[in-house]
Amino acid sequence: MMGILKFMGCGCRLEGGELVVSPAGLCRTDLPQEAGQMRSSVILLGALLGRCGEAAACYPGGCSIGERPIDFHLGAFRALGAEAKEEGGCVLVRGEPVGGVIRFPYPSVGATENALLAAVKGKGETVILGAAREPEIRELCLFLQAMGADVEGGGTDVIRVRGKRYLHGCRFRAAGDRIVAGTYLMAAMAAEGKLLLEGVKPGHLREVLRVLERAGASISTGEESIALEMNGRPTPLWVETRPYPGFPTDLQSPLMALLCRGEGVSRIRETVFERRYETAGELNKLGASIRVRGDTALIDGKPRLKGGRAAARDLRGGAALVVAGLESPAETVISDCFHIERGYEDICRDLAAAGADIRWLEREAKEKRA
């Protein structure tokens, strides 16, 4: 993302845990071709439309977890009075957002974000109905408010925006990543260990913590901390993914890996992305027993997995293989880890700090060659 912003003329620098962005030099409204490799690049369309009145990008890519059209995004831009079309694998948007009513038939996180970013610098008032309620949406609204935007309703299914011509810079502290937090909690459960997470809001993980407690974990929470302890194998579960505040689809694969050690048969129904189950075949290579029937996966728990070799098919599927590796006394080797690196700053560093025997083989090889 920093590379894309620099290509467009923005100043970007990462200093420890702080990202400093300056848009003063913004000189282009077309995204580089490489942006098509990253799903989240589509969010720049709304920001550029609101700021510059136009934007162009290649059709966004990302993990192959199912159909992920951007028709909700384009529909939102049109509802704001802008022109939006797809030509030859590219997306073109043009016009000044003038406000209006946006109705989402499904609470899409990305489309809600794009609508917000386009509307905050548009004219008039925008009402977003059927908005996504994920904590990340509320965080974005708080961030925009810190920049002077007139936004209310973040975290509910109705968001109101009154456009302003000028926003200003700000200093903002983002909440801890709830999906990373959930992954690490499941990793600790897989290893029958203890873990204290700090810098994460338990309220963002209510349904996840409820499911993990049903699986046998002992959990206590503070204002921005979660402590977990696990003894024994997980209790079998029946879980269905849903938009927030339901169980998140992004933690379905790690949960599946955890339930591979369950004391019976568990069932997971995936209602968001139809190809989330590609990881099941890789988990079976490590000794799991998973059968997929349509949108439902049946997991027959085993006392231990056998380890071995498997490939990360997508971001969360790669994290699931890490969880599975902690369930085996034998060695597990995961390939195609570039998927994992997109969503976790350093999963090996973090889990090793908690006592796991985990390391990046490619990095070790590079250090030896150096």
How many beta-strand runs? 18
Strand order of the largest sheet: 6-7-9-8
The SS-based structural class is alpha+beta
Largest sheet composition? 4 strands, mixed
Shape: globular
Mean pLDDT: 93
Low-confidence sequence ranges: 62-68
Strand content: 15-25%
> Cα distance, first to last residue?
28 Å
Helix fraction bin: 25-40%
Rg estimate, integer Å:
21 Å
Please report the number of helical segments.
13
What does this structure look like?
The protein has 370 residues and is of the alpha+beta class. The chain is 32% helix and 22% strand. It has 13 helices and 18 strands. α10 links the parallel β17 (308-311) and β18. It is globular and about 60 Å long.
Which features would summarize this protein structure in a list?
single chain; 370 residues; alpha+beta; 4-stranded mixed beta sheet; 13 helices; globular
Short description:
The chain is α+β, with helices and mostly antiparallel strands and 370 residues long. The protein has helices at residues 2-7, 43-52, 71-79, 109-119, 135-146, 178-190, 206-214, 252-259, 278-285, 315-325, 338-343, 347-353, 361-369; strands at residues 11-15, 18-22, 54-58, 83-87, 90-94, 100-103, 125-129, 150-152, 158-162, 194-198, 218-222, 225-229, 238-240, 265-269, 290-293, 296-300, 308-311, 332-335. Residues 62-68 have low confidence and may be disordered.
